[in-house]
């Protein structure tokens, strides 16, 4: 009886709930009142010494609006610039040109110019971490020169440079010459006491009349300031240790040294074990890698146990040298890009207290013990080369 009497009351409460939740978003904005931003570039304003901000905005007709279709060679985006003494001021100044506020929830990437990166990113990154519409998964990149130039390079296969950059970064697994970094991860490294933040490098390459965007290598930071960069081989050396190598190519000389064998990396695993021994810091690095024989430029039959053994040994040495190249560069920059300090802290909590304050002095003295196990597990569709040797065998 009591339950039946409460039923009308429950229905009334439900109706009121639906009335307020389904009537729309409080504080929402109509699509026509939005300037949808998909990329942001930040440079030094050379004339005034403050900030030059470039926002890449999707044109109205590209979002299903009523704008006219320019057709032909018209760009699907509009790069609008503004200046200010802070990022937020520059963002608001853009409204004088757009007539609407920027909507950055769809922003794909933030690109900082080399001048900003060399000065230090601490005071420039705060806005992007604080803005409630900003996605923490937005990518962060460093331009080899000016971010505004990168934003203006129209790609051949994508409508928007910012989307093209995102796709280029997302494809890093094919070569393992790149490391995808988002705002959240970069900020986390900046707050670390020892680990050096990194971000992909992006540049503009002139090819006749076209400008192509090229993403490769990593910018290395220390205390928020860019101190150097890693080339492609050094990046992969770093990724071997971090366990982030997904694929790629390793080229070794054939056993008879009359050609080469091209190996495709199929999988890779790493394990790093820190050790404190007689006041020495030793990092034991174990790499297990599997590959396939994807191409050869020799008539020699490489699908034999003896040939595999020699190629595996050569592949393991290449991996070892790439790791050492990355470590040597990190010592040159005195930047702990591997996170060795955090590994020591985790295993040796008490001892780390005495090491922490002197880590900059101790890091160059770290020793590496590298053990690489490289294994070729298949030869793809061919078991023998597609042509015969001179002996006809």
Report what the structure shows.
The chain is of the alpha/beta class. The protein folds into 2 domains: 32-230, no CATH class; 232-380, 2-Layer Sandwich (GMP Synthetase, Chain A, domain 3), CATH 3.30.300. 33% of the residues lie in helices and 30% in strands. The protein contains 13 helices and 13 strands. The strands form 2 sheets. Strands 1, 2, 3, 4, 5, 6, 7, 8 and 9 form a 9-stranded mixed sheet that branches. A 4-stranded mixed sheet has the order 10-11-12-13, with helices on both faces. The protein starts with a helix and ends in a 15-residue tail after the last strand. Residues 20-28 and 64-72 have low confidence and may be disordered.
Task: Considering the chains and any ligands shown, give keywords for the structure.
alpha/beta, GMP Synthetase, Chain A, domain 3, 9-stranded mixed beta sheet, 4-stranded mixed beta sheet, 13 strands, 33% helix
- Report, as a whole number of angstroms, the end-to-end distance: 96 Å
**Which outline best applies?**
globular
Alpha plus pi helix count: 13
What is the alpha-carbon Rg in Å? 27 Å
Helical content band: 25-40%
Number of strands: 13
- Approximate strand percentage: 25-35%
Sheet bearing the most strands, described?
9 strands, mixed
Question: Gist?
Answer:
It is built from 13 helices and 13 strands. It has 393 residues and is an alpha/beta fold. It has two domains: 32-230, no CATH class; 232-380, GMP Synthetase, Chain A, domain 3, CATH 3.30.300.210.
